[in-house]
Structures are given as C-alpha cells and as structure tokens.
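We modelled the chain as a single entity of 290 amino acids. Its sequence is:
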Amino acid sequence: NANRVTVSPTALSIITQNANRVTVSPTALSIITQNAYRVTVSPTALSIITQNAKRVTVSPTALSIITQNAKRVTVSPTALSIITQNANRVTVSPTALSIITQNANRVTVSPTALSIITQNANRVTVSPTALSIITQNANRVTVSPTALSIITQNANRVTVSPTALSIITQNANRVTVSPTALSIITQNANRVTVSPTALSIITQNANRVTVSPTALSIITKNANRVTVSPTALSIITQNANRVTVSPTALSIITQNANRVTVSPTALFIITQNANRVTVLPQRIHYYPEC
C-alpha cells in the first residue's frame, strides 16, 4: 500500500502490492506487481507478472510476460513467451515464440510464433511455423530439446529438455528442470529440484525446497522448511515455521514466523507478529511493527 516506490539501481528483486506508481531500476531482474494502475519496467527486466493492470508496457528485453484480465497488452518484439487470459485485444510481436490465449475475441499471431493454443476463441489465425506443446492432465510429458516454453497442469511427471527457457507446473508431484532453465514457478509441488543456473524461483505450499547456489531471488509461502544458498540476495517467507538465511543475504521480510535467525551481514529486517526475533547489534534499520 505504498503511494510511490523508488528502488536503487542495484536492487535485484522487487515485489509491490497495491502501489499506485512503481519505478524499477535498470538492473532489476524480476518484478511482480498486483493491482497496479501503471507499471514501467526497466530494459533489463527478465520476467514480469501483472494482474488486473489497466496498462502494461514491457521493455524490449523482457523474456516472459503473463497478464490476466488486461484490457490492452502490447508486447515488445523480443518477448519470448506471452500468456493472456480474458483479454479483449492481443497484439503479438513478430519474434514472439509462444502464445496462449483463453476466451479471447480476436487473436493475431506473428509468422514466427512457435506454439499457440487457444480455447473458446471466436477467431484465430495461426502462423504456419507453429510447433506447439501444451498438455493438460497428462500422465507423462516428454518434450523435444528445441521446445522453448512448456506449461503443464496436473502432470504426474514432467521431463524438460536442456534448452527449455521457462517452465510453469501446477500440482506436479515431481519436477526436474534442465540446467539452462531461467525461471521456474511451481505450485503445490511435493519436491522441487532446481538447476544451478536458475535465476528466480517461486514456490507455494511446498514441503521442501532446495535452491542452487546461484539462485538470486526466492519467495516461499507456507513452506515447512527453507534452505537458501549462500549467494541468495533476497528472501521473503510467509507463515514459515523455520527460516535459515545464508551469511550473504541482504534483505529479509518474514511474517507470522515462529523463529527467525538472521545472518551477520543482513542489512535490514522487518518482522510482523513474530514470536521470537534475534537481531545482531550491527543492524542498520529494525522495525518490529511495520
């Protein structure tokens, strides 16, 4: 609920909620905004997820974009994957590789789009080069090495090729990601193993999460145990029973956490409704009730 948010150029991950205006530094890697009136993303932002946004402008280097209930969506020419739902009009750049629209009145796809799946669309024009892979309620899915984006739902087993760039799995019992996967979002997954090169990970209701040493940002919700690699820069946990943070973690925000242990190099900590909090004497800022 911040009226204006300005982030420093070195900030790696930013999450704002119900913010009227958001300005992100050029080096920000991942951004998630919810119910934002206007969102401007820096040219180096890699992944963006907006929900219920009236206007969305994405930088030319954005790799993946997911918008929901957006009136108008304009995607940069270099965007690789786009998923829109209940959008009145969708215009995709010629270099977009994968597109999934649902309940769209009109959809125009560029000739270079590789995969397209539309459902309940009045008019659909598909390019001749579409390769396409999207499975729903599939027991086993095997994807070729050249597939760039894969979305599986309620799949028991998923095997992704080494060149897959983005993967979103939902209610998957086991997920194995190739070393070159850039972004992964899993929901209600029992076990998640991430390759060393994964940049961002968001897990929800995961029993156990193991993150590679090169992971930059991690957000877990309702996780029983969370272990973060020494190079993780930012961590946000909610309703976590136990949280252990590496010595190099820079910022930590915990909510309703039973016990919180912070490394000596943490710069600032904000805890809310925490039963026990241990803070080192060299803390710069500490707000118990924020």
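As a brief sanity check on the tokenised model: Residues 4-125 form one domain. The CA atoms of residues 124 and 149 lie 21 Å apart.
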